């Protein structure tokens, strides 16, 4: 890991397992829900319940991190998701399945907030960007590999992916408990009197919100959730088939181009954040992302679409590491609620983005919807311009 703390590599592996399993189970969720004889609205509810409860419980997860510590909350969150996922595969009625998915969202919030809080605490300021990029790389690689395997497993049985994901999460939880124990060096290294360390307590959320760096991280992360986890997955496939007149395979090619570009540029983006500086790196990422989304507001063309997806993938590599590094700079030790609100900003974008963009498409056009998404990403650019130069 080239000088990074041991915990960074462990967290990256855990992130890969979590994302791989989530990708495996994702194709099975709508099919399994449909097997209960419910309509498409109920199927959509089964998909969104996880994300909604993950969003509303994240702040509580941050409070638990500050009280119990990252490692305990991380392992507990993984155990909650594992148990609820396994039981969901055994569900015999839709209401039971729905509530188990909702409970899984609570566990996911606990894991995500605790893992990022631990990562930002153990990573030195000079390598915080690389640490965040390495961690995000685990998610990206798992997210790429999971859906393909999930589709094949779902053909065998729609219940099978749930069981495999549950086992994988339990293994990840055991690995986290064993390998993420605090070392003697780490226990002795925490200086007293630094805001946010155990001696003086976590950085208050109100204090963090007065920091332009933290506000810039929140605004940028909102745009990442809006586009990367929301609009890109909901609106782009329909845009390709209805507006461009291409097959779904072209939509897959565009998404793959974006993911590949992001994966290839991720480690380099972390080094830029650490060596070039947070402000110029964030400016480059938000400016590139704004330009990429603006391409989709132009008259439809397949080549422009593919260029937009690849370019946004490059931007997403920077936007996956720099905002997280900024949060670590603001709250260097056990920033549970500070990290939770940061995560909630992306989740809010992931929930609101598809709804707003879908409504704008219905009442206006795809171009108007993409223009609105461009404005959300551009808000991150404005926030980056407001950052101090040092």
From TrEMBL:
<feature type="transmembrane region" description="Helical">
    <location>
        <begin position="366"/>
        <end position="387"/>
    </location>
</feature>
<dbReference type="Pfam" id="PF07690">
    <property type="entry name" value="MFS_1"/>
</dbReference>
<feature type="transmembrane region" description="Helical">
    <location>
        <begin position="72"/>
        <end position="92"/>
    </location>
</feature>
<feature type="transmembrane region" description="Helical">
    <location>
        <begin position="281"/>
        <end position="298"/>
    </location>
</feature>
<feature type="transmembrane region" description="Helical">
    <location>
        <begin position="338"/>
        <end position="360"/>
    </location>
</feature>
<protein>
    <submittedName>
        <fullName>MFS transporter</fullName>
    </submittedName>
</protein>
<feature type="transmembrane region" description="Helical">
    <location>
        <begin position="132"/>
        <end position="150"/>
    </location>
</feature>
<dbReference type="InterPro" id="IPR036259">
    <property type="entry name" value="MFS_trans_sf"/>
</dbReference>
<keyword id="KW-0472">Membrane</keyword>
<feature type="transmembrane region" description="Helical">
    <location>
        <begin position="45"/>
        <end position="65"/>
    </location>
</feature>
<feature type="transmembrane region" description="Helical">
    <location>
        <begin position="12"/>
        <end position="33"/>
    </location>
</feature>
<feature type="transmembrane region" description="Helical">
    <location>
        <begin position="304"/>
        <end position="326"/>
    </location>
</feature>
<feature type="transmembrane region" description="Helical">
    <location>
        <begin position="162"/>
        <end position="180"/>
    </location>
</feature>
<dbReference type="InterPro" id="IPR050930">
    <property type="entry name" value="MFS_Vesicular_Transporter"/>
</dbReference>
<keyword id="KW-1133">Transmembrane helix</keyword>
<feature type="domain" description="Major facilitator superfamily (MFS) profile">
    <location>
        <begin position="7"/>
        <end position="390"/>
    </location>
</feature>
<dbReference type="InterPro" id="IPR011701">
    <property type="entry name" value="MFS"/>
</dbReference>
<feature type="transmembrane region" description="Helical">
    <location>
        <begin position="98"/>
        <end position="120"/>
    </location>
</feature>
<feature type="transmembrane region" description="Helical">
    <location>
        <begin position="213"/>
        <end position="229"/>
    </location>
</feature>
<keyword id="KW-0813">Transport</keyword>
<dbReference type="InterPro" id="IPR020846">
    <property type="entry name" value="MFS_dom"/>
</dbReference>
<dbReference type="InterPro" id="IPR001958">
    <property type="entry name" value="Tet-R_TetA/multi-R_MdtG-like"/>
</dbReference>
<keyword id="KW-0812">Transmembrane</keyword>
<feature type="transmembrane region" description="Helical">
    <location>
        <begin position="249"/>
        <end position="269"/>
    </location>
</feature>
């Amino acid at each position: 890991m080239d000088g990074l703390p041991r915990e960074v590599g462990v967290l990256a592996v855990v992130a890969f397992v979590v994302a791989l399993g989530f990708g495996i189970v994702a194709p099975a969720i709508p099919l399994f829900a449909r097997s209960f004889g419910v309509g498409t609205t109920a199927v959509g509810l089964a998909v969104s319940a996880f994300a909604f409860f993950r969003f509303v419980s994240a702040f509580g997860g941050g409070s638990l991190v500050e009280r119990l510590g990252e490692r305990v909350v991380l392992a507990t969150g993984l155990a909650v998701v594992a148990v609820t996922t396994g039981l969901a595969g055994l569900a015999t009625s839709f209401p039971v399945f729905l509530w188990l998915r909702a409970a899984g969202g609570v566990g996911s919030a606990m894991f995500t907030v605790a893992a990022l809080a631990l990562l930002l605490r153990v990573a030195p300021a000079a390598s915080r960007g690389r640490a965040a990029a390495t961690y995000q790389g685990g998610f990206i690689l798992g997210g790429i590999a999971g859906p393909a395997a999930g589709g094949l497993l779902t053909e065998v049985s729609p219940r099978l992916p749930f069981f495999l994901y549950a086992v994988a999460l339990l293994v990840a939880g055991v690995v986290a408990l064993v390998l993420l124990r605090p070392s003697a060096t780490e226990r002795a290294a925490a200086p007293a009197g630094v805001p946010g360390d155990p001696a003086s307590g976590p950085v208050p959320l109100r204090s963090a919100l007065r920091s332009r760096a933290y506000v810039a991280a929140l605004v940028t992360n909102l745009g990442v959730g809006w586009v990367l986890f929301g609009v890109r997955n909901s609106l782009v496939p329909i845009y390709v088939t209805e507006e461009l007149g291409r097959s779904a395979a072209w939509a897959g090619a565009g998404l793959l181009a974006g993911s590949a570009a992001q994966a290839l540029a991720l480690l380099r983006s972390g080094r830029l954040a650490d060596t070039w500086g947070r402000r110029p790196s964030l400016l480059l990422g938000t400016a590139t992302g704004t330009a990429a989304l603006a391409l989709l507001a132009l008259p439809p063309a397949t080549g422009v679409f593919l260029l937009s997806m690849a370019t946004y993938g490059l931007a997403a590599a920077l936007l996956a590491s720099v905002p997280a590094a900024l949060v670590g700079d603001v709250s260097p030790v056990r920033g549970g609620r500070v990290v939770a609100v940061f995560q909630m900003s992306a989740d809010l974008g992931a929930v609101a983005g598809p709804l707003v963009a879908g409504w704008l498409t219905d009442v206006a056009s795809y171009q108007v919807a993409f223009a609105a998404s461009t404005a959300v990403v551009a808000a991150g650019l404005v926030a980056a311009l407001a950052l101090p130069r040092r």
